[in-house]
Amino acid sequence: MLNRILGAIVRAALVVSLIVMPSVFLPNVSGDSAQVIALIALFGAALTFFEYVSAYPGLVEFRDAPPFNRIRFGSLFVTVLLLTVIMQGTVDPSVLSVLVTAIGGLIGYVMDFQFSPVRLIIQLLPKDMPIDQVAMVRVAAGMSYLISLISLCIFYLALRLGNWPAKNGTFNVWINLPTFDPTAGGDVVARLTRDARVNIILGFLLPFLIPAVLKSAATLFGTITVENYQSLIWAVSAWAFLPASLFMRGIAMGRVADMIADKRRKTYANADFDHQPV
Description:
Layout: H1 2-25, H2 31-53, H3 68-89, H4 95-111, H5 117-123, H6 131-160, H7 173-176, H8 188-221, H9 229-274
Helix pairs in contact: 1-2, 1-3, 3-4, 3-6, 3-9, 4-6, 5-6, 6-9, 8-9
């Protein structure tokens, strides 16, 4: 019980540090914005603490199947951290900010080709926007998208080489998939496989769909601006993180479906062997 409480406290502290990071390191943050961010951070910390301190399922999927959530959180944390360093470098340059900006610029340039997600983000910007601001958005988009791809590769290696989630012992579907109801009807394996495919398809399409939706909404809400660095950081981070998260969720649910199907085959095989005539 003590280990569970300590783990919940550490996770809550990490969530707070993630949420407040841009407002702490970026200059010219208004008092009202700081108060709103502090309120959101407290809410996120409370939700995380009560989720992980409880022995019963809540809202977080694959809670007892590390490193699924650790990879997702680490991906978002690194993305927000590096984008904060890049934005801070525009006001107060440092060796680290110059290095990260240079790496992001190279990645953004490589990924900025026709019909790529980075190019679609660039096309959302006003045509009269200064070239340095366009370059900054390209740097942020390229860095975020690269981190999301790296997180997918790390999870795939953990799944294949680490035999996830079987290495953690018995996989409890009730705790790790609290929003999935096995008794809702239909075959569990078929439903898990269907949900896995839907998540993978959405994860693949979202980097292209989000810019298209934002471009359509620009006629109602106006074009995107990069004057607010906090908004830019969270928008670009969400654009890269959400598709990767859905992709990982789809892969994970497909893995669970394969485990259940394999368990069924072994059970049926043992039952047939036990009923063979002597």
